[in-house]
């Protein structure tokens, strides 16, 4: 059994092994983990002279239940569906910050390692999301951050409708909180950037929530400025891997925020696919220029990678309140044609059989699952 510290150590001499390794040499099952985590990554950039070439495998991906990411029976079923569905390139797994950092600078990436090895063996790819926000009473930061140095590290926010606890978010205006998040990303990048089946790393949605203690305008501004700082650091830690940010609200910050993401080489994602939600599709007027996020998918198409997500509630309604129940085809068409999606992430919920049915249609068996396969201009080049 490896210790947490051992999990993070990759010997530099090991990484300099030549590229003469052949698949025939890795048939022994006992070596699967070692091969997938160390030997296979050697070839990911070898095929190109561009050291900033980004792994690029557009198409469809599952989002599995976070609570079952280590459940063998559940994963066995998921893997059988991936194997039977060529249009599914892999899956996204969500991890809270405190799932990954157990004490200051002590990281446990064992779950990621296992899932990555299992997916690699199937020729499928892994996307992870680091969750710095919860939607219940789940705390998100490591315990060591619940001190004055980090202002407690997190804050509770409340539902504007029920005025009950909505969840927790991080105090990212605090430079020490920012520093520790950057350290986590650095450790993840050092371990996974060069792995060919580690496709992307995503950050959860932009809204802060309604804090129990109102923030100052300076704190709110610093919160979003620090997210841009974190993303710029992530691009240096993941030069060959997509980094993504879910964006939906607040509308007042979206234009500047998304423009800075584009300029930093970050992919645009979303926490929901609500095809006629007024705030998301709002085109702006002469009196209010704060356009909804969906407008920027068209505006920046071809410049940055587009990766919308379909969450469980999206299968039931097209708006937060009201709307109608859309079909899987309607959602796919909207994401493909209106949002110019390169990637679509589908929550594997009770409608997954209908999702699989649509993904197994001939239209999704083409290049990139019928989605836009073009490498965005924000990357110097893409490598498959």
What this model shows, in words?
By secondary structure, the protein is α/β, with parallel strands linked by helices. It has a domain at 63-132 and 172-364: Glycosidases (TIM Barrel, Alpha-Beta Barrel), CATH 3.20.20.80. The protein contains 13 helices and 16 strands. The strands form 4 sheets. A 9-stranded parallel sheet has the order 13-12-11-9-6-3-2-15-14. The longest helix has 21 residues, at 217-237. The chain starts with a helix and ends with a strand.
Task: Record the SSE blueprint.
Elements: H1 4-7, H2 12-15, H3 32-39, E1 54-55, E2 59-63, H4 72-84, E3 88-96, H5 97-100, E4 101-103, E5 106-107, H6 110-121, E6 125-131, E7 154-158, E8 165-170, H7 175-192, E9 198-203, E10 210-211, H8 217-237, E11 242-246, H9 251-264, E12 267-269, H10 278-281, H11 294-299, E13 306-307, E14 309-310, H12 328-338, E15 343-347, H13 352-359, E16 382-383
Parallel strand pairs: 1-16, 2-3, 2-15, 3-6, 6-9, 9-11, 11-12, 12-13, 14-15
Antiparallel strand pairs: 4-5, 7-8, 7-10
Helix pairs in contact: 3-6, 7-8, 8-9
Protein name: Glycoside hydrolase family 42 N-terminal domain-containing protein
Keywords: Membrane, Transmembrane, Transmembrane helix
Transmembrane segments: 21-42
Briefly say what this structure is.
The protein is of the alpha/beta class and 384 residues long.
Order of helices and strands: HHHEEHEHEEHEEEHEEHEHEHHEEHEHE
Major sheet characteristics: 9 strands, parallel
Strand order, main sheet: write it out: 13-12-11-9-6-3-2-15-14
Distance between the terminal alpha carbons, to the nearest Å?
34 Å
Keywords: Membrane, Transmembrane, Transmembrane helix
Protein name: Glycoside hydrolase family 42 N-terminal domain-containing protein
């Amino acid at each position: 059994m490896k210790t947490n510290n051992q999990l993070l150590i990759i010997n530099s001499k090991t990484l300099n092994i030549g590229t003469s390794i052949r698949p025939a040499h890795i048939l022994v099952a006992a070596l699967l983990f070692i091969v997938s985590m160390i030997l296979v990554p050697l070839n990911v950039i070898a095929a190109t002279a561009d050291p900033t070439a980004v792994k690029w495998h557009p198409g469809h991906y599952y989002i599995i239940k976070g609570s079952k990411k280590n459940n063998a029976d559940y994963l066995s079923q998921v893997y059988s569906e991936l194997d039977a569905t060529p249009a599914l390139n892999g899956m996204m797994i969500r991890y809270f910050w405190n799932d990954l950092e157990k004490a200051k600078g002590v990281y446990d990436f064992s779950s990621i390692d296992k899932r990555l090895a299992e997916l690699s063996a199937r020729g499928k790819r892994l996307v992870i999301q680091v969750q710095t926000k919860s939607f219940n009473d789940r705390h998100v930061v490591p315990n060591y951050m619940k001190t004055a140095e980090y202002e407690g590290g997190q804050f509770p926010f409340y539902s504007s409708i029920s005025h009950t606890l909505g969840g927790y978010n991080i105090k990212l205006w605090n430079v020490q909180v920012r520093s520790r998040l950057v350290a986590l990303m650095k450790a993840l990048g050092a371990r996974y950037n060069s792995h060919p089946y580690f496709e992307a790393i995503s950050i959860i949605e932009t809204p802060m929530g309604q804090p129990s203690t109102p923030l100052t305008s300076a704190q709110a501004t610093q919160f979003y400025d620090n997210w841009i700082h974190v993303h710029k650091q992530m691009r240096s830690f993941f030069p060959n891997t997509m980094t993504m940010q879910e964006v939906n609200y607040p509308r007042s910050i979206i234009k500047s925020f998304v423009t800075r993401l584009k300029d930093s080489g970050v992919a645009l994602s979303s926490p929901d696919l609500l095809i006629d939600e007024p705030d998301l599709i709002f085109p702006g007027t002469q009196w209010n220029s704060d356009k909804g996020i969906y407008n920027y998918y068209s505006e920046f198409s071809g410049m940055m990678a587009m990766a919308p997500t379909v969450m469980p509630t999206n299968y039931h309604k097209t708006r937060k309140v009201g709307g109608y129940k859309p079909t899987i085809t309607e959602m796919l068409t909207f994401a493909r044609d209106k949002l110019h999606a390169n990637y679509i992430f589908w929550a594997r919920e009770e409608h997954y059989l209908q999702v699989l049915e649509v993904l197994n249609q001939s239209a999704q068996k083409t290049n990139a699952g019928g989605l836009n396969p073009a490498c965005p201009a924000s990357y110097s080049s893409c490598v498959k």
